[in-house]
Structure formats: structure tokens, C-alpha cells
Amino acid sequence: MRACSSKEAGIFDSHMIRPTTGTNTFYSNPWAPIQVKRRTKIFMSPDAFRDALILTGPTACGKSAAGIILAQALGAEIISMDSMALYRGMDIGTAKPSAADRALVPHHLVDCLDPHEAATLAWWLQQAAAAAQHIRERGKRILFVGGTPLYLKGLLRGIFEGPGADAAFRRQMEMLTEAELRQRLRAVDAAAEGKIKPNDRRRLIRALEVYELTGQPMSAWQTQFDAPQPRVLPPIWLHLPRAALHERIHRRIDHMIESGWVEEVKRLRAAQPPMSKEAARAAGYAELLAHLDGQCSLAEAIEQTKTRTRQLAKRQVTWFRHLEELERMDLEPSATAEEAAQRILQRWQRP
Predict the structure, then answer these.
(1) Is the confidence at residue 27, as pLDDT, over 70?
(2) What is the per-residue pLDDT across 125-171, written as a single tens digit (0 to 9) for each?
(3) Degrees (nearest 5) of the Cα angle 131, 221, 165?
(4) Domains and CATH numbers, the chain
(5) CB count, 10 Å around CB of 172?
């Protein structure tokens, strides 16, 4: 996996030690994981992002346009919170900020990976922490804009990453039956055992491994990251009436098709190495790939994309409602990006 270069995105490699290009200046990690026992990187704290501004919302709600206006008004730089905007060449279907948008306001974590690569949440958070630190050093404010729920929760609450794998311990556990694994786990972490479905040996062994390496049950570690953390200003999520949001989704997908989305997917399909599973499963890309493979007509692929995107928006809204530190901002269907940005500014300027 290749990280964004400092020239592309103003951030560093996944080890957070030295720039991927430029001078040999060393930088400290602004988001160092806590260490326990032997070679065990356990969790990442959200402290590096407490002063950051966050704007989120379901796909097609207008957050990107509002974010550019906000960044200009606040003297901020934008860190993209979109898992698909990471990929080079996936431009039309991800509604990636245009070159003109990026000329107006610097954007980070955009065009960082080739489509055959994959990114973990931990990797993304490390990159985001480095970008945030760089922005602070330039005297700018940090504004996250995007709608990937897992990234959002990681920013707000941190993540439990867990210890590295212990191959010898796993080999021992593989020799046990599922009943024996459950009996062992129940003795040390009944809460975790009760949540693991039948036949999921991998998760049973992982829970036992966490306890073996840290001395604490996995359920206890995970609970630490299930509570809201204090913030300087409230993260805002934009909300539109469902019918209005669906209309925007349909219009945007039609515009993407007219703008050459099918041709973009053809280029990606022909590229080597092939797209990663994560990239190929992105909304719309999976459906257009199926069309190009002869599995459905273009009209069917477009309708399937619209359906799947509406479902995606519904899942996003469910996530936002369960993150209690988010503040919902209701917009009228006719609201412009300028109007949305003005309301957000007023809220953030309120004591």
C-alpha cells in the first residue's frame, strides 16, 4: 500500500515517522497508541481530533459544497472523510472534489491509493492525524468533511485495534473444538462469548488471544470506545427529508452517467493489477462492473445503483442517529450550499 505523498496530501507514511517525499525532517506521532504487555498495540485515542471541525451527512446531502464554503470562511483545510475518495481514477462515481474545488481549498486524503490497494481504519486514522498536525503547523483550522460512518466513529471515539497476532497461541487454539473454545472464553469474557455467532472460530480465537496478550477481556477494551468524548465544537450532520434526498441521489447518478461514469469504470476494469475488493464493491462501481461483464443492461445497472445508494444513505442516517455527540441540522429541500454553510457557521460561533 502506498501512502499519499507529502506533495499530494501534506501527510506522511503509515508509520508516521518521515515524509514520503521532501526533506529528512522527523515528526512525532500526534496520535500514538497505548502499549501494554508484549508487542501489543491496543488502541488509538481520538485526542488528535478534539479541536477539529466535523461536517457529515448522508450521500448527496450537499456537505461537500457546504464544506468548501465553510473552509474559506474559517481559514480551514479539508480532510476528506470518504473511503472511496482515497482512490485515484475513481473520480466521477465518488463525487470527488474537482480540481477547481481543490484549488479553492486544500483537500487531504484524496487520491492517496491506487484502486488495487486497500485501506484499514487504523491506517486512515493515522494518515488523518498526520494531516491534522500538518494543518495546525500551518496555522490553519481542520475541517473533516465526508460521510463514511466508520471513519467518523473512529474520529470521535477512537478505535480498539488490539494486539498483534500470536501464531503459536493460535495454533494451540486451532486444536480445540468450538465447544472447548467457548468454554475457555466464557470463563474469562462471558460478554464477548455471548455475542459470537455459532461456527465463528476466528472471533472466538481472537477474543481468547486478546485476553492472553493483554490480561483484560476484549469486551472491556471495546467498552472504552463506546462512549462520547468531549469536543471543542459539536460535529454537525446535515439532514434532508427522505423524498428530497432520494431526488438528489437520482439526479446525481444520472449526471454521473452523463459525465462518463461508464467509461471510467471501463478503464478501471481494464487496469492491472485489478481493483481491490473494497474498491470494486463501491456503490455504482459494482453495478457497472456487472453490466460490463454482461450480467445486466445499463438501465438495470443504473436502477440498481440508485436503489443501493438510497440504502447506503439510510444506513448512514442510522449511524448518525446513534452517535449522540453529533448535532443534527435539518435543511429544507431547497436549501443551497451557501444557506447550509451560513447556518453551520452560526452554530459554531454560538457560545
Answers:
(1) no
(2) 999 999 999 999 999 999 999 999 999 999 998 887 778 889 999 99
(3) 80
(4) 6-158+228-349 (3.40.50.300), 167-223 (1.10.20.140)
(5) 13
